[in-house]
Amino acid sequence: MNKGTPRSMAMKPARQNRTQRSAGRRHPLATAALIVVGLLATGGTYALFTTSATAETSAAAEATIEDGGKLFAANCATCHGLNLQGTKQGPTLIGVGAASVDFQVGTGRMPLAATGPQAEKKPVQFTEEQVSALAEFVASKAPGPAIPSAEYLTGEGDASEGAELFRINCAMCHNVAGAGGALTEGKYAPPLAGIAPNHVYDAMLTGPQSMPVFNDDNITPEQKANVITYLKYLDETPSVGGFGLGNLGPVSEGLFIWIFGLGGIVAITIWLTARSN
């Protein structure tokens, strides 16, 4: 028995080690449970922040539309009606979209200063935030053309393709150099020098005044961006032929020759005759 006692005592630490290892070993499902808990915690936190951000965005959009409604009631409803239905003084704005408001109000054409063949560009009466609020309010009443994305307004497209598109679709009214020109019944195509890219895009999209509408099926957004690039090129590139005479074409050049060229010849002739006498 005495000989067996040391053996029994030697086996106890081994059993204790196995018991400790068994007690320290994780359950096979513990890792999966931890992953599930982590995913639930991450998803819940993300959902909480997303919901909060969405609620804040929605509240900000509603506040912007409310501000736009107040501006509209104070400055536009007299002609266009409180519900955008139009009156004898102004057309309906239902379905014109935010792009139309961005162009008309952002270029100062609206509010209209006086009746005439067409609204003329003048100093803008509102800040950018107010123009945006008016656009959001009108767009909230009915779907319509939206304000273009910034990616199409950089002026970094294909200027050669833009020039071709401009000659085909725009030059007959605006002149190939964008100098503008006269139309019928007192109307005119305005010059396009220095026009903001978003207003050029808005005009193509909505067709203000006598201008036709060029929707995305007629001219794609990328092609509109190329037209903007061409107009930017005209703004930044000086006339390679010297004094451009307003870039109005052969009529202005011929008139210049008749008045100043022939006039100068007649004046020199008279001077020489008077000197000989």
UniProtKB/TrEMBL annotation:
<keyword id="KW-0679">Respiratory chain</keyword>
<feature type="domain" description="Cytochrome c">
    <location>
        <begin position="63"/>
        <end position="142"/>
    </location>
</feature>
<keyword id="KW-0249">Electron transport</keyword>
<dbReference type="GO" id="GO:0005886">
    <property type="term" value="C:plasma membrane"/>
</dbReference>
<keyword id="KW-1003">Cell membrane</keyword>
<dbReference type="InterPro" id="IPR036909">
    <property type="entry name" value="Cyt_c-like_dom_sf"/>
</dbReference>
<feature type="binding site" description="covalent">
    <location>
        <position position="170"/>
    </location>
    <ligand>
        <name>heme c 2</name>
    </ligand>
</feature>
<feature type="binding site" description="covalent">
    <location>
        <position position="76"/>
    </location>
    <ligand>
        <name>heme c 1</name>
    </ligand>
</feature>
<feature type="binding site" description="covalent">
    <location>
        <position position="79"/>
    </location>
    <ligand>
        <name>heme c 1</name>
    </ligand>
</feature>
<dbReference type="InterPro" id="IPR009152">
    <property type="entry name" value="bc1_cytC-su"/>
</dbReference>
<keyword id="KW-1133">Transmembrane helix</keyword>
<comment type="subunit">
    <text>The cytochrome bc1 complex is composed of a cytochrome b (QcrB), the Rieske iron-sulfur protein (QcrA) and a diheme cytochrome c (QcrC) subunit.</text>
</comment>
<feature type="transmembrane region" description="Helical">
    <location>
        <begin position="255"/>
        <end position="274"/>
    </location>
</feature>
<keyword id="KW-0813">Transport</keyword>
<dbReference type="InterPro" id="IPR050597">
    <property type="entry name" value="Cytochrome_c_Oxidase_Subunit"/>
</dbReference>
<protein>
    <recommendedName>
        <fullName>Cytochrome bc1 complex cytochrome c subunit</fullName>
        <ecNumber>7.1.1.8</ecNumber>
    </recommendedName>
</protein>
<feature type="binding site" description="covalent">
    <location>
        <position position="173"/>
    </location>
    <ligand>
        <name>heme c 2</name>
    </ligand>
</feature>
<dbReference type="InterPro" id="IPR009056">
    <property type="entry name" value="Cyt_c-like_dom"/>
</dbReference>
<dbReference type="Pfam" id="PF00034">
    <property type="entry name" value="Cytochrom_C"/>
</dbReference>
<keyword id="KW-1278">Translocase</keyword>
<keyword id="KW-0677">Repeat</keyword>
<feature type="region of interest" description="Disordered">
    <location>
        <begin position="1"/>
        <end position="26"/>
    </location>
</feature>
<feature type="domain" description="Cytochrome c">
    <location>
        <begin position="157"/>
        <end position="235"/>
    </location>
</feature>
<keyword id="KW-0349">Heme</keyword>
<feature type="binding site" description="axial binding residue">
    <location>
        <position position="174"/>
    </location>
    <ligand>
        <name>heme c 2</name>
    </ligand>
</feature>
<dbReference type="GO" id="GO:0008121">
    <property type="term" value="F:quinol-cytochrome-c reductase activity"/>
</dbReference>
<keyword id="KW-0472">Membrane</keyword>
<dbReference type="GO" id="GO:0005506">
    <property type="term" value="F:iron ion binding"/>
</dbReference>
<keyword id="KW-0812">Transmembrane</keyword>
<keyword id="KW-0408">Iron</keyword>
<dbReference type="GO" id="GO:0020037">
    <property type="term" value="F:heme binding"/>
</dbReference>
<dbReference type="Pfam" id="PF13442">
    <property type="entry name" value="Cytochrome_CBB3"/>
</dbReference>
<keyword id="KW-0479">Metal-binding</keyword>
<feature type="binding site" description="axial binding residue">
    <location>
        <position position="80"/>
    </location>
    <ligand>
        <name>heme c 1</name>
    </ligand>
</feature>
